[in-house]
Amino acid sequence: MQIHTKAVHSGDRKRNGAHVPVTTPIYTATSYFYDSMEQLDRVFGQEEKGYCYTRYDNPNAAALEELICALEGGAGAQSCASGMAALQLAITSALADRRKSIVAANALYGSTIGLLMNVFEPMGVSVRFADVCDLDALRTLVAEAKPGCIVIETISNPLLRVGQIDRIAEIAREGGAALVVDNTFATPLLVRPLELGAHFSVQSVTKYLAGHGDVMGGAVITNQEHLEGLRSLARTLGPVLGPFESYLTMRGIKTFPLRMERQCANACRVASWLSTHPGVARVYFTGDPAHPDAAAIRRLFPANLYGAMVSFEIKGEGREEVFGFMDRLQMIVRATSLGDVHTMMLYPAMSSHRELSPKHRQRLGIGDTLVRLSVGIEAPEDIIADLEQALAINPSA
Fold it and tell me: Is 207 a catalytic residue?
């Protein structure tokens, strides 16, 4: 089945007694009982399929995991209470039987850098950063550091760099490392990391998959080799996603491919317009033919689907002026997230990368004039009109 069909049908319509609900109902129970202790014992021991305690598994999470697994092309999935919980679970699982060493992309979400440096490093895990778009340099560092895990993003946050996942996966295999890919910006509509050789794909389902700004959640999708270890770790740590959030995420995913296609098309229009505006110094967009990773994008992404994120720098302005520009926005939502049906704008230095020092941000290329735009499903003319009036030097004229 194509991904549009999987999004509509996977995970649903499990038999419940004599009837089959069209969509998965919401199961709020924390515990489940059976007619005999012998059967309950088998379920607890995972010798028989079933539910016993919601921290281990529940019908809503199981249905969502089946759906996300079908979209990503994995052997199994584990839902979590947030994208960061999912990323921590994936990295911990990857390192469980490997060297306690990580090589990570030097361009990552600020909280991911914080997770690596403030959680894993104090626990004795060595962390080193590399430009994963430079394969020769990455191969050299992996040979030197001998990591148990390599951590990258499909599309980096917020400057939208794209590494060659299949070739990074080869480097990981050569070095005996597991490859963990945060696929949130790309989504499985654009890229499926497991099919390119990654061991773990991570989604913040808060973003494009749920898509309506009303769910907090995450998911780890993995291959057969790592599934049992991932599940066992999750049963112990309990990062479980609740039944309501699982239900809402499944509901959102049914329209996810349609929404994402519209958002990608809108982003192309918006990025093209921004590139001609005299008040914009630079535009970062994966659909730009001059993108530094254009060859990798053409090879790995479907035609005309480049993602819905656009970052840009405002010409000759500082923090105060950028705040003024954002305050003038009338339709575009100023908020700390992305992937919703409505267009959203964020100031990375204040939010997504706030935890990093100014010098660290500058080294990453995140300056005080950079803003990040998550393009929604509105009419592109209305998105552009709002940007145009906000960028005007004298908006009241």
Answer: yes
